């Protein structure tokens, strides 16, 4: 991919929008809505760094080890992350947060979440 400044758009690709994604297991969804969408705006040549926009319906997952380093900015919705010590933080529109690879946590999307992401494997 050519090196240049890339604008991340909340609705994904201007012509195609966002495409279905399948990162969330079906049994993790907490409502009849199983919508999960993604658009990757950038991926490094080695595939280890990528950035885009992702949306997911309400769900709850217990994560033994977060698979990547990820920085996120919430566009809409709400997600609550609970640490192993029981402490939790909720994030809504405008909030930016980071999860380190290997983090054990509970990921709970309470309201359909749309976020920008920057991932490093």
Description:
- Strands 1, 2, 3, 4, 5, 6, 7 and 8 form an eight-stranded antiparallel sheet that branches.
- The protein starts with 18 loop residues before the first strand and ends with a strand.
- The radius of gyration is 14 Å and the shape is globular.
- The chain is mainly β.
- It has a domain at 43-120: Jelly Rolls, CATH 2.60.120.
- The chain has strands at 19-20, 36-43, 49-56, 59-63, 69-83, 88-92, 96-99, 105-120.
- The protein has no helices and eight strands.
- The mean pLDDT is 96.
Task: Give the tags.
121 residues; mainly beta; Jelly Rolls; eight-stranded antiparallel beta sheet; 0% helix; 52% strand; globular
Mean pLDDT across the residues is 96
Please outline the major beta sheet: 8 strands, antiparallel
Uncertain stretches of 5 or more adjacent residues: none
Kindly report the name of the CATH homologous superfamily of the domain at 43-120: Jelly Rolls
Provide the CATH top-level class of the domain at 43-120.
Mainly Beta
Q: Approximately what portion of the residues adopt beta-strand conformation? A: over 45%
Helix-residue proportion: under 10%
Brief summary of the model shown:
The chain has 121 residues and is an all-beta fold. The protein has strands at 19-20, 36-43, 49-56, 59-63, 69-83, 88-92, 96-99, 105-120.
Please describe the topology of this protein.
Blueprint: E1 19-20, E2 36-43, E3 49-56, E4 59-63, E5 69-83, E6 88-92, E7 96-99, E8 105-120
Antiparallel strand pairs: 1-2, 2-3, 3-8, 4-8, 5-6, 5-7, 5-8
């Amino acid at each position: 991919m050519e090196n240049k400044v890339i604008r991340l758009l909340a609705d994904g690709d201007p012509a195609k929008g966002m495409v279905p994604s399948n990162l969330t297991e079906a049994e993790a969804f907490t409502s009849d809505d199983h919508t999960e969408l993604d658009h990757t705006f950038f991926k490094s040549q080695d595939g280890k760094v990528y950035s885009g926009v992702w949306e997911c319906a309400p769900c709850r997952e217990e994560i033994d080890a977060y698979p990547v380093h990820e920085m996120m900015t919430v566009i809409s919705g709400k997600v609550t992350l609970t640490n192993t010590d029981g402490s939790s933080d909720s994030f809504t529109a405008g909030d930016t947060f980071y999860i380190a690879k290997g983090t054990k946590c509970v990921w709970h999307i309470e309201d359909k979440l749309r976020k920008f992401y920057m991932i490093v494997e």
